[in-house]
Design goal:
Structural class of chain B: mainly alpha
CATH superfamily of chain B: MetI-like
Order of helices and strands of chain A: EEEHEEHEHHHHEHEHEEHHEEH
CATH topology of chain B: MetI-like fold
Oligomer: heterodimer
Structural class of chain A: alpha/beta
Largest sheet of chain B: none
Number of strands of chain B: 0
Distance between the termini of chain B: 20 Å
Number of helices of chain B: 10
Shape of chain A: globular
Number of domains of chain B: 1
Distance between the termini of chain A: 33 Å
Radius of gyration of chain A: 21 Å
Largest sheet of chain A: 8 strands, mixed
Strand content of chain B: under 5%
Order of helices and strands of chain B: HHHHHHHHHH
């Protein structure tokens, strides 16, 4: 079990993550959505013990009841792969171009589980089969450039699964893949999570993928978790104006309506851009871009509201429909 | 297929010539290079002695070939020893970072600040003139060169996502250095090794010329040069032949190294 309480990450005066609290239990499938720079990846790196050296962390992170505050790099190395593993956005960049993919997958097996070369090879073959790589025997000897994007991501998933982790962090696992392949990778991750009772932390800015993959969702903006709850409830009736903005900015297959002059409406966007880490408003991070902003929003941090069972949102003006 | 750079082709041809001669000398030379014939001294080129004979009547071609072998062996040993130690130090500095990296690199800077040849002369002078000491001295001056190249290249590789992925898979920094960093910095290391090979050949010739390297009767271009120097007016060709050999070998490895660098790192190719 992974437990974050008020975890903050600072780079000098800049804040990358502000008082994030999360609990991840075996088998949980939690989605994290938000724009680039919202702190999603920083949260993931903290769970891996791989936050950049320049970062200062405060708050607590416990793994199976153990406080990781004083954990050394060696302690973390023992946890990685066995307890928590990660897959990355760019499957090409995340594979060593000069290593056969089989060797890459066998590395942690030999290191952590102390398997012999033959045993590691046999296990790698099983893993390749489990993640749906056809002809695993031949693939094992291939180099990353010989595989397609989807196959590479499957290799990385096999690598992450090698030591049977309790938590798999998928940092934008489908962003670099085409839509059809992305769907299959998403479904693969859900299936693996269910079969192995392995928790899945699915980080993405693709709401459709998150809706498909997860049972719970956390929406992040500017280093804050602004809204949390069961995926379906949050996406059906978002309480935070940022969540509503994200949902509104989603392109759909049906044409946008025409106005009175017959002009096609434009896809709604959230005005402005995410401010830099050092220039975030003191109060609600979304102040300045929020359509329903009050004067106090920029200076005063909103309290947590409970728009429904198991839900929470940090907003002064949460949506009425969500609260009802 | 992309056209190979001219310097690579010329360099490779010269290097093949020198290595070929050195390899051939292991099994065959026209004559025994130590065989003296005082009556046939300063012989002109003939069917028997293609480049003539020296002041002791020894066959010049045989001597040059045997000296090529000696030169290659010294350069190879020096680059291998210095390159391995330097690369290991560079990898270590890059993997650990912090004050260890600073310390290693500052020591390398001190090594750089010494004129390399002068340093080799000093070492050979302190530990006595011998081929082994010449090899050690040349190895030593190679260490900071390789440490710097390895560390700079490794620092680039450490930022790659596959290294992050390997860390996420729980690999130690030592294992990552060995399995992921080293193979990916091999190209710049090999380029550097080729260029340092040329430097090592020159250093060996210089040390032997000064009497600090190969000892008689071991053949060496540098020693042939110094022996011929006193006879410059009598038989200038005896100085010219080993000089040409040194130029050929140094130029060959230098051009080959530059060519390899152009091929492996296209960003460094200058506009022609």
């Amino acid at each position: 079990m992974f437990d974050l309480t008020n975890l903050s990450v600072h780079f000098g005066p800049a804040t990358a993550l502000r008082e994030a609290s999360l609990t991840i239990r075996p088998g949980d499938r939690l989605g994290i959505v938000g724009e680039s720079g919202s702190g999603k990846s920083m949260l993931a790196l903290c769970l891996m013990g791989m936050a950049p050296e320049a970062a200062t962390l405060s708050g607590t992170l416990t793994i199976d009841g153990r406080d990781m505050a004083d954990a050394t790099e060696r302690d973390w190395q023992a946890l990685r792969a066995r307890r928590v593993a990660m897959i990355f956005q760019e499957p090409m960049a995340a594979l060593n171009p000069l290593s056969r993919v089989g060797d890459t997958v066998m590395d942690p097996l030999r290191l952590h589980l102390g398997l012999s070369k033959q045993a590691a090879r046999a296990r790698a073959l099983d893993l390749f089969a489990e993640v749906g790589i056809p002809d695993p025997e031949a693939r094992l000897r291939q180099f990353p450039h010989e595989l397609s994007g989807g196959q590479r991501q499957r290799v990385l998933i096999a690598l992450a699964l090698a030591c049977d982790p309790d938590l798999l962090i998928a940092d934008e696992p489908t962003t670099a893949l085409d839509a059809n392949v992305a769907l299959r990778i998403t479904d693969l991750l859900v299936r693996l999570s269910a079969e192995r009772n392995m928790a899945l932390l699915f980080i993405s800015h693709d709401l459709a993928a998150v809706a498909r993959a997860t049972s719970d969702i956390a929406v992040m903006y500017g280093g804050d978790i602004v809204e949390r709850g069961p995926t379906r409830a949050v996406l059906d009736s978002p309480a935070h104006p940022y969540t509503r903005g994200l949902l509104g900015a989603r392109p759909s297959a049906t044409a946008l309506p025409r106005d009175a002059k017959g002009k096609r409406a434009r896809l709604p966007t959230i005005p402005g851009t995410v401010p830099g880490m050092a220039d975030l408003p003191k109060g609600c991070r979304f102040a300045g871009r929020c359509p329903v902003e009050l004067p106090r929003c920029a200076s005063e941090r909103p309290a947590v509201t409970k728009p429904g069972p198991d839900r929470s949102a940090i907003c002064h003006v949460p949506s009425k429909e969500a609260l009802a | 297929m992309k056209r190979l750079p001219v310097n690579l082709l010329i360099g490779a041809a010269l290097v093949l010539l020198v290595i070929g001669a050195a390899a051939l000398s292991l099994i065959w030379t026209p004559h025994d290079y130590t065989e003296m014939n005082i009556r046939g001294k300063f012989g002109p080129p003939s069917e028997l002695h293609w480049l003539g004979t020296d002041q002791l009547g020894r066959d010049v071609v045989s001597q040059l070939m045997a000296a090529a072998r000696n030169s290659m062996a010294v350069a190879l040993a020096a680059v291998l020893i210095g390159g391995s130690i330097g690369t290991a130090l560079g990898l270590l500095a890059s993997a650990i970072g912090g004050w260890v990296e600073d310390l290693v690199m500052r020591i390398a800077d001190i090594g750089f600040a010494f004129p390399a040849l002068l340093f080799a002369i000093m070492l050979a002078a302190v530990f006595g003139p011998s081929l082994t000491n010449a090899i050690l001295a040349i190895s030593f001056i190679n260490i900071p060169v390789f440490a710097r190249v390895a560390r700079a290249s490794a620092n680039q590789i450490w930022t790659r996502e596959y290294v992050t992925a390997a860390q996420a898979a729980g690999l130690t920094r030592a294992a990552i250095s060995r399995d992921h960093i080293l193979p990916n910095i091999a190209a710049p290391i090999i380029v550097q090794a080729t260029i340092e090979f040329a430097v090592a050949i020159l250093a060996e010739a210089a040390l032997s010329y000064l009497g600090l390297g190969a000892q008689p009767p071991a053949p060496s271009w540098g020693r042939m040069l110094s022996e011929a120097q006193t006879l410059m007016y009598l038989a200038p060709q005896l100085a010219i032949y080993p000089g040409l050999c040194i130029v050929t070998a140094v130029l060959g490895f230098g051009l080959l190294g530059d060519g390899l660098r152009d091929v492996t790192d296209p960003r460094l190719v200058r506009e022609r």
